[in-house]
Amino acid sequence: MGASESYDDYDAGTGLLITCWTLTGVAVLVIFLRLIAKNKIGNLNIDDAVMVFALITLIIGDGLVTAGVHYGLGRHASILDHGPEVKAVMYYCISQSFGIVASTIGRMAFIMFLARLFPSSSVTRTVLWALFAIQPIVNIIAIFLMFLQCHGEIPPLFDFTLPQDNCMPLSVQINYAYFQGCFNTVSDLFLAAFPTYIFWSLKLRLRVKVALLCLLSLGIFAMAASIVKTVELNTIAHTEDPTVDQVLLLRWVYIEATIVLITSSIPCLRPLFVAMSKNFSSYPRQTYEMDGSYGHGYGRSRSSKYHAQDRRQRGDGDSERVILENSNGGITKHVTVTVQDEALAI
């Protein structure tokens, strides 16, 4: 009796929703900070708009996952009525497509971001744009195979009681899905590893160089998620309970998508990190007149308190200091100080 109740009460949908919406919330926050950071340095570009579009696609997909869970996705098909079961499978397929599209657009946005760091004639930029063009082709074909596997007949995709005679062998979709997963894994590895090769030769401080490489190499986590998702593809081939068995695959589709969006946007937050580090490290500093009084205790004229230095800030790192001596032949000295920050505005 207890085992039967446990079977009937089983619900993997709740965990799926928690995973999807929690990660999406993090993605929303990171992309919001990305826009603030790039607006702060006046560097908003088309890649930011593409990333926002990827986020919108992800949120729509989360909504479809929620609808699928409402109809029984995550619960055993045997305890569902036929109508809700069909709708649960339908929302599973559609939401999976949105997850694939979101991760694809996210990678494309990151490639656009990286491509702008290189000269238009460089081989690296050509390779990046080639990868940019291949991304949608490889991933959209996977979606077409999912929805066209029955030669355009949509109902048999969701209703397993209908004849499947006109559908292509499931092995075709699975084999291509493995290829797609391997392609995305290699793409994530390339996008995470090649900055190390390219930027290591730049003449930057080691601290700045390591920080940049760490930020640009976060895609290694997206690669790991892609590997796990690819491994979970075997659930498609060996499923007797589609509303439960494929939940884990769908979860990793959305984990991969959100990690792609998050890790692709974190490098753009560096201006905020730099500004925060400056604020934390800044503290009030005493100013001293350049008359030899600092560190010696002599040479301070009585009129110096009336003719203190006049310092006018003219931007980040530029100042003009005017020192006036209390004499008829006063001397005015202009000192221009330029401070260059080694931080890249990326």
Any key phrases for this structure?
about 350 residues; mainly alpha; Rhopdopsin 7-helix transmembrane proteins; three-stranded antiparallel beta sheet; 3 strands; elongated; disordered C terminus
Task: Tell me what you see in this structure.
This protein has 346 residues and is mainly alpha-helical. The protein has 2 domains: 9-278, Rhopdopsin 7-helix transmembrane proteins (Up-down Bundle); 303-337, no CATH class. The chain is 63% helix and 3% strand. It is built from 13 helices and 3 strands, in the order αααααααααααααβββ. It has helices at 2-9, 13-40, 46-70, 82-115, 123-148, 155-158, 170-199, 206-216, 219-231, 234-237, 242-245, 247-265, 270-281, and strands spanning 310-313, 319-322, 334-336. Strands 1-2-3 form a 3-stranded antiparallel β-sheet, with no helix packed on it. A hairpin with a 5-residue loop joins strand 1 and strand 2 (319-322). It is elongated. 30% of the residues are buried. Mean pLDDT is 80; it is low at 283-345.
Produce a short descriptive summary:
The protein has helices spanning 2-9, 13-40, 46-70, 82-115, 123-148, 155-158, 170-199, 206-216, 219-231, 234-237, 242-245, 247-265, 270-281, and strands at residues 310-313, 319-322, 334-336. With 346 residues, the protein is mainly α. A hairpin with a 5-residue loop joins strand 1 (310-313) and strand 2.
Write the layout of secondary structure elements.
Blueprint: H1 2-9, H2 13-40, H3 46-70, H4 82-115, H5 123-148, H6 155-158, H7 170-199, H8 206-216, H9 219-231, H10 234-237, H11 242-245, H12 247-265, H13 270-281, E1 310-313, E2 319-322, E3 334-336
Antiparallel strand pairs: 1-2, 2-3
Helix pairs in contact: 2-3, 2-12, 3-4, 3-12, 4-5, 4-12, 5-7, 7-8, 7-9, 9-12
